[in-house]
Specification:
The protein has 78 residues and is an alpha+beta fold. The chain has a single domain, classed as 2-Layer Sandwich (Alpha-Beta Plaits), CATH 3.30.70.20. The strands form two sheets. It has a four-stranded antiparallel β-sheet, covered by helices on one side. Strand 3 and strand 4 form a beta hairpin. The model has no long low-confidence stretch (mean pLDDT 98). The structure holds iron/sulfur cluster (SF4). Iron/sulfur cluster (SF4) binds next to helix 1.
């Protein structure tokens, strides 16, 4: 489980669930990339346009491998 803290969001990757569909990468290429095993990982120094981009990208995951919490600890995705 890799975790990255944005200003107001925390994103967790459950690599065991990822099937490499690339949806999140296409939506937020400044945040996610696929590794050589076709499993998602964070890029170096992830940068998102805004929170909505991150939330939308994580919502597009077909297997709920991307978990998002806000600063209050409330789970936003999935
Ligand atoms: S959308 Fe989900 S399954 Fe597809 S690459 Fe991203 S984390 Fe993996």
């Amino acid at each position: 489980m890799a975790t990255h803290d944005f200003d107001t969001l925390t994103v967790e990757i459950d690599e065991a669930l990822c099937i490499g569909s690339g949806n999140c990468v296409n939506m937020a290429p400044g945040v996610f990339q696929l590794n050589e095993e076709n499993v998602v990982e964070f890029v170096d120094d992830p940068q998102a346009t805004d929170d909505e981009e991150v939330i939308e990208a994580c919502n597009l995951c077909p297997v709920d491998a991307l978990i998002v919490h806000n600063a209050d600890g409330e789970q936003l995705v999935p």
